[in-house]
């Protein structure tokens, strides 16, 4: 599956199929949360959270791709990400874009 964050894929003509999306909600882990608290004292990157959000983006991307494959898409254009805090300690990550079929 070709994923681009632009409206066009150079050299390709396609028809628009539909909006596709994938998402996940990830919650903090006690160990990660403890280490994050320690980082607040000394500063620096909170790698546990960085890894958690990276994993969440991959899950969201894979779910978006599955959504596109189910409608016979060849690519997804205008790929975007959104995130929001669902509750204290949990974040939602959504990947979305436009599924297209090559002519």
Strand-helix topology:
Elements (H helix, E strand, L loop, with lengths): L1 E2 L10 E14 L2 H13 L4 H24 L4 E13 L2 E13 L1
Parallel strand pairs: 1-3
Antiparallel strand pairs: 2-4, 3-4
Description:
With 103 residues, this protein is an alpha+beta fold. Helices cover 36% and strands 41% of the residues. The protein has two helices and four strands. The protein has helices at 30-42, 47-70; strands spanning 2-3, 14-27, 75-87, 90-102. The longest helix is centred in the middle third of the chain and has 24 residues, at 47-70. The chain starts with a strand and ends with a strand. The model has no long low-confidence stretch (mean pLDDT 87).
Secondary structural class: alpha+beta
Distance between the termini: 15 Å
* SS elements, strand count: 4
Shape: elongated
Low-confidence stretches: none
Q: What does the average pLDDT come to?
A: 87
- Using the CA coordinates, give the radius of gyration: 17 Å
Strand order of the largest sheet: 1-3-4-2
Number of helices: 2
- What portion of residues belong to β-strands? 35-45%
Query: Main sheet?
Result: 4 strands, mixed
Helix content: 25-40%
Note the run of SSEs as H and E. EEHHEE
Q: TL;DR of this structure?
A:
By secondary structure, the protein is α+β, with helices and mostly antiparallel strands.
Which characteristics define this entry?
36% helix
């Amino acid at each position: 599956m070709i994923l681009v964050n632009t409206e066009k894929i150079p050299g390709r003509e396609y028809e628009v199929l539909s909006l596709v999306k994938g998402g996940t909600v990830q919650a903090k882990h006690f160990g990660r949360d403890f280490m994050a608290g320690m980082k607040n004292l000394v500063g620096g990157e909170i790698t546990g959270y960085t890894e958690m959000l990276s994993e969440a983006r991959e899950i969201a991307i894979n779910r978006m791709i599955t959504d596109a494959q189910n409608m016979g898409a060849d690519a997804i254009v205008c790929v975007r990400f959104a995130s929001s805090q669902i509750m204290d300690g949990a974040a939602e990550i959504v990947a979305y874009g436009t599924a297209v079929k090559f002519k």
